[in-house]
Specification:
Distance between the termini: 60 Å
Protein name: HAT C-terminal dimerisation domain-containing protein
InterPro entries: RNaseH-like_sf
Oligomer: single chain
Organism: Phytophthora fragariae
Number of strands: 0
Structural class: mainly alpha
Largest sheet: none
Number of helices: 9
Number of domains: 2
Order of helices and strands: HHHHHHHHH
Radius of gyration: 25 Å
Strand content: under 5%
């Protein structure tokens, strides 16, 4: 495999990780494919890598997003996402069926997950990847002599640019 192909693979992975619509399940699927193609990255990208602080929670959320069964450790880690047990009231509307027919009639029930929808939980790398990519653009060869506090202020202003405009800056100056 040529270096150009490998770099194209990693560029594609990096760009995909920056998508705001990427879920934790999608990230895990992407990392598993990268590990399959590049086995040397397994210590860094596996679900049980040293960088993963709470592996049971991560794998539990991924399994919830995929609607798979959880292990006991994952169930314990995802207990905060569990729905409160609700028992529906058993009020039977009057009908034309006899009591025997009503007793043996199949009831329509909707199968609900015991957990809330966890699709809203983004992988933390989304925001971090975007932020570090923008830092890389600002901290170019021409700006290597920037003071760390100046770089921090530039990045803070750039990251929060929707909170200020020219008029806000002018108001602060005067």
């Amino acid at each position: 495999m040529g270096l150009s192909l490998i770099l194209n693979d990693f560029e594609g992975v990096t760009k995909t990780l920056q998508r705001s619509t990427l879920t934790l399940s999608g990230t895990r699927r992407l990392f598993d494919l990268v590990i399959q193609r590049y086995p040397k990255l397994k210590p860094r990208l596996s679900a049980t890598a040293a960088i993963v602080n709470y592996a049971a929670l991560e794998t539990g959320i991924v399994k919830l997003q995929r609607k798979e069964a959880l292990t006991p450790a994952e169930r314990a880690a995802c207990v905060d996402f569990r729905r409160a047990d609700e028992t529906p009231s058993l009020q039977v509307p009057p009908s034309d069926l006899s009591i025997v027919q009503q007793a043996f009639k199949k009831r329509k029930t909707t199968k609900r997950s015991r957990y809330v929808d966890v699709a809203f939980i983004p992988p933390t790398s989304n925001e971090c990847e975007r932020f570090f990519s923008s830092v890389k653009l600002v901290y170019s060869d021409l700006r290597k002599r920037l003071d760390a506090s100046t770089l921090e202020m530039l990045m803070y202003l750039m990251y929060n640019k929707d909170m200020w405009d020219v008029y806000t800056v002018e108001a602060l100056r005067s």
